[in-house]
């Protein structure tokens, strides 16, 4: 034990209760992360000398003289997730701060495979890749769901296959077709046939999945992952769209020079945002750099429509349309009062004279 003549040169020891402060342990951010959180917290306690591992059961035993201190700190680490923290506090009171019993109760309530599966399936149902430009946001959401799947089922091949197939339902047909072709081509290059092997398990989900697999669980193809293939397909598709949407040019010979001219065609007038709404608000500020945060903020103002753009110098700005002067005035007042947002708002001038270096007309 620390303080009793033991060699503590290779470990952090619990010299006194003060060493386990309120910020010593990581905090829980999501109730579905509870299994992983408890593992990390218990490992910290063992490394700090407040608990030891029972070799027979692999469970930890908190040293008796630190029991109330340690359990109190564990409860504090759960505080950000109120329902988990409340359950843990009730269990601590009921079981006299006996950590094994508290842990078992929390596991029964929040660590069931069925609960984790229901949560990741719920996340997958909400995922939809609407266009190639949203690829990273789609992958981020899919990664969160995959993490839940891994916690619940580990390396279960059937569950992994089911996860990938459900994820593919949120990918447009043409994009998915290119993705499958890329995976099948990689399988063929590695000497495997897609008729004899599941393509869903032929590649890892992402680089983290690939790096964490054991030697016995390595995928058939390690040169790409599901996510890297999707990124590649979306990137190529975006590039193709840029090339095909570029204006065509024609060479016109004159007496003294050769110059490029665009073929004449009848252009449809560009719809004006300011023509569709009687009251338009012009907003600038750094918060607009994050599209998701900006959209959530706009929702609190309740506009009829919103438009997030960038000016000639690349700075973001937004236009919010309102149908009534009362709604416009209330929203404008809310933004101007919210100094913490860092946003600047004013009525949009269709002629551009009051918009500074922003838009001339939208």
From TrEMBL:
List compositional bias (Basic and acidic residues) regions by residue number.
Answer: 336-354
Q: Which domain of life is it from?
A: Eukaryota
According to the record, the residues making up region (Disordered) are 336-362
| Name under which the protein is recorded | Uncharacterized protein
Q: Which species is this UniProt entry from? A: Perkinsus olseni (Perkinsus atlanticus)
